[in-house]
């Protein structure tokens, strides 16, 4: 069983400078706490906790997906508890020296788990008391040092009742006496501070639990101390509006999900794709994001994400009438690509943007260019120059990062570009805008604007830095859009004036080169439909590939040219190719050790028959060529895992001295680039989430079936209640819907059986299901039923 919850703060009825989220263990009573904090502006910065919102675990589902106002509650040390305690109570007869029979309570404190750590340490002990109308006896365990999971295993004895008549042979306790008594166990942290020991939590156990049997052995959740908080009126603290998203998944063994999983993974092959299971999920969900998250994770896990997104993107492009609005809506395609970039592109984002974002957040250079917001001590021209430098640097790191873009993103971008170019053949820029609308508008620009949401920064930036990042993000977004009229993209005149710095062709060329590189596919069976894209060119020195005797005459200066189809060299720029190497024939691209030819900055392009040795003009250019050649060839099926770092000369390899020129490599290939990010995804859990969504929106599935029937028999205007569904082929869609309903109903039956069996097997008071303040009555009822059955 897996539980997750997400909290988004929407508003507060009173204004507080900052809000942060904390949580307690799922084992404790409150699983979600959100304190509101007032930030002090004294010379010593101290956060003062104003109040909190606490939601019990069993109540989370009640607030799922809803915006709810919660009253703030006072925060005190006595109310912040977590953990559980294991107790054993035994009521027994004891014969005194005088022969009188007494009834004593033996209380055994065995252990605790998950106690809170206070001020970096936890030295717990337990205080045990027997409470009644006229008694309050207290005893303590030994202190257990430096552990929040103490093992006590200590027994304490308490006299419970007056001696009974000697004539009674069986043990008996008057129920009215038991009802008046209770056992209290409090956990404390032994502190060396002058303020005294800290309260960790407590349990109150009425002795009526012993009325059915003389022994009670159970785990209890620790509870806050009664009346431990300060006397503060709740309404005086204000309230907080929260949106809680809570899921609890019971994941079955993999074979239970086979029918539904097969339907989902077959989606890319269904014609039309609107009749596929995955597309139907997007149609019935209230928000496309609900469907996109589990779908993307499932398809990534099984390596099916590229064909699926290609299919739904192609269908969306064909429905688009204006190239200027391509992929601008919140469609299933857009949400799926967004989610894919978040998962597969997070490392790429970290490597590309984090260093410069950290620098911006640390330097605090003034970058405000709005004359109205300018401070008296700031200079407008200086601020513009600071901002221009930041924009230039971020633009450069983005447009030179194409070789690090994950392969799965490149393949998706290739599909988008090809679909857009085929659909709108007159518009020459649509192949760029189709890709830039995602990589700039939905990936880089949001990450710059809110770096904390993309794990680039631990916290939200301060207001001044946030303003700087906003200005940078808007400029980068416009640079990447390749719009015809740049100034028209800005509502503010000061932004239009600032953008004049970047109204040069070199910026548009850099964006196009970057988009060309990241939209290059590694799937060579698609090359026949793709227009070759020039990726890099320039003069370098190469060694002849023939078997001629080695000599300086074998090194010649040539013009090299790389497209996403082939790597060629020419005598001079513009002449025909002297040699062409198809990209699929590049098995590895690695550096060549200097000792081979006593020449620096050399690398080798390894082919099936031989290696091409090349010398770049400098080390930076060598690195660039190696990176980009590795990038375009990294999906080749026959890529090598080992290579020879030195050349084959004079009848042997210089590195390993092996004489056979066909000998396998002696050194592991570097690869040059990070491999596709491997995600820790549980495919069965994602299928379970999709089942839950289908189950939640079952009424919409039924309505969609009705819509298919209506479209099949009626050619007139579409009924309004069915207009929200995309149904291109009613018969095929109805067939898929029938299969979905069948698979969901089968899983529903399995869930019902699981819950019924689980309820029967659940033992309240066990370590897995401790007794809480709401489950005590259930425990009493369960014990009563058990006693009845035993009789």
Describe the structure.
The chain is an alpha+beta fold and 791 residues long. The protein has a seven-stranded antiparallel beta sheet with strand order 19-18-17-16-22-21-20. A hairpin with a 2-residue loop joins strand 9 (124-132) and strand 10. It starts with a strand and ends with a helix.
The overall strand count is: 26
The total of helices stands at 18
First-residue to last-residue Cα separation: 35 Å
Major sheet details: 7 strands, antiparallel
Basic shape: elongated
Q: Approximately how much beta-strand content do the residues carry?
A: 15-25%
Helix content class:
25-40%
Rg, rounded, reads 35 Å
Unreliable spans are 2-31, 38-44, 163-176, 524-529, 547-553, 672-676, 786-791
Class derived from helix and strand content = alpha+beta
Strand order of the largest sheet: 19-18-17-16-22-21-20
| Mean of residue pLDDT values | 81
Domain Ras-GAP: 287-481
Domain PH: 533-634
Domain C2: 81-220
GO molecular function, one term: GTPase activator activity
What is this structure, in a nutshell?
The protein is an alpha+beta fold and 791 residues long.
């Amino acid at each position: 069983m897996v539980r997750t919850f997400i909290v988004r703060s929407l508003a507060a009825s009173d204004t507080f400078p900052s809000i942060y989220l904390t949580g307690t263990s799922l084992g404790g009573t409150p699983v979600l706490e959100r304190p509101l904090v007032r930030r002090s502006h004294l010379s010593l910065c101290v956060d003062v906790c104003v109040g909190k919102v606490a939601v019990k675990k069993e109540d989370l589902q009640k607030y799922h997906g809803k915006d709810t106002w919660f009253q703030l509650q006072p925060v005190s040390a006595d109310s912040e508890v977590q953990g559980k305690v294991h107790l054993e109570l035994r009521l027994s007869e004891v014969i005194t020296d005088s022969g009188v029979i007494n009834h004593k309570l033996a209380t055994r404190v065995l252990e605790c788990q998950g106690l809170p750590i206070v001020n970096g340490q936890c030295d717990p002990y337990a205080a045990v008391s027997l409470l009644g109308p006229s008694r309050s006896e207290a005893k303590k365990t030994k202190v257990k040092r430096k552990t929040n999971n103490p093992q006590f295993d200590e027994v304490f004895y308490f006299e419970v009742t007056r001696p009974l008549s000697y004539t009674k042979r069986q043990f008996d306790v008057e129920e009215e006496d038991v009802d008046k008594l209770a056992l209290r166990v409090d956990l404390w942290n032994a502190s060396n501070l002058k303020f005294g020991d800290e309260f960790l939590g407590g349990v109150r156990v009425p002795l009526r639990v012993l009325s059915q049997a003389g022994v009670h052995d159970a785990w209890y959740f620790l509870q806050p101390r009664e009346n431990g908080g300060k006397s503060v009126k709740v309404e005086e603290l204000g309230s907080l509006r929260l949106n809680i998203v809570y899921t609890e998944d019971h994941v079955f063994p993999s074979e239970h999900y086979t029918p539904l999983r097969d339907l989902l993974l077959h989606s890319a092959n269904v014609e039309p794709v609107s009749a596929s299971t995955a597309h139907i999920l997007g149609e019935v969900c209230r928000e496309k994001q609900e469907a996109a998250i589990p779908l993307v994770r499932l398809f990534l896990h099984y390596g099916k994400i590229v064909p699926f997104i290609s299919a739904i993107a192609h269908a969306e492009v064909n429905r688009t009438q204006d190239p200027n609005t391509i992929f601008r809506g919140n469609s299933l395609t857009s949400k799926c690509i967004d989610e894919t970039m978040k998962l597969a592109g997070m490392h790429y984002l970290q490597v590309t943007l984090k260093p410069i974002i950290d620098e911006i957040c640390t330097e605090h250079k003034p970058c405000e260019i709005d004359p109205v917001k300018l401070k008296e001590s700031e200079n407008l021209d200086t601020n513009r120059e600071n901002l221009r430098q930041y924009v230039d640097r971020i633009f450069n790191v983005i447009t030179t990062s194409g070789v690090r873009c994950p392969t799965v993103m490149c393949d998706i971008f290739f599909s988008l570009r090809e679909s857009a170019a085929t659909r709108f053949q007159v518009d020459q820029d649509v192949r760029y805008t189709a890709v830039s609308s995602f990589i700039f508008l939905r990936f880089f620009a949001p990450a710059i604007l809110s770096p904390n949401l993309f794990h680039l920064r631990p916290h939200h930036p301060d207001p001044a830095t946030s303003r700087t990042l906003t200005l940078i993000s808007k400029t980068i977004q416009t640079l990447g859009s390749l719009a015809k009229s740049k100034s028209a993209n800005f509502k503010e005149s000061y932004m239009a004036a600032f953008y004049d710095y970047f109204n040069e062709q070199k910026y548009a060329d850099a964006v196009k080169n970057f988009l060309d590189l990241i939209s290059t596919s590694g799937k060579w069976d698609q090359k026949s439909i793709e227009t070759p894209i020039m990726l890099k060119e320039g003069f370098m020195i190469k060694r002849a590939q023939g078997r001629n005797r080695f000599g300086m005459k074998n090194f010649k200066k040539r013009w090299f040219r790389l497209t996403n189809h082939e790597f060629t060299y020419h005598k001079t720029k513009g002449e025909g190719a002297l040699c062409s190497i198809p990209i699929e024939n590049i098995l590895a691209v690695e550096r060549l050790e200097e000792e081979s030819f006593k020449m620096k900055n050399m690398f080798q392009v390894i082919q099936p028959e031989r290696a091409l040795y090349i010398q770049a003009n400098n080390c930076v250019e060598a690195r660039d060529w190696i990176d980009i050649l590795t990038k375009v060839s990294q999906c080749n099926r026959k890529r090598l895992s080992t290579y020879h770092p030195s050349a084959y000369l004079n009848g042997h390899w210089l590195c390993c001295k092996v004489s056979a020129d066909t000998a396998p490599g002696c050194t592991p290939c570097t690869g040059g680039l990070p491999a596709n990010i491997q995600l820790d995804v549980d495919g069965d859990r994602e299928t379970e989430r999709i089942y839950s969504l289908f189950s939640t929106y079952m009424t919409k599935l039924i309505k969609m079936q009705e819509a298919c029937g209506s479209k099949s028999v009626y050619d007139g205007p579409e009924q309004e209640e069915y207009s929200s569904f995309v149904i291109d082929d009613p018969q095929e869609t109805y067939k898929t819907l029938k299969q979905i309903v069948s698979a969901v109903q089968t899983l529903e039956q399995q869930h019902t059986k699981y819950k019924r069996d689980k309820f029967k097997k659940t033992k309240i008071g066990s370590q897995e299901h401790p007794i809480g303040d709401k489950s005590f009555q259930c425990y009493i009822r369960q014990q009563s039923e058990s006693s009845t059955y035993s009789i």
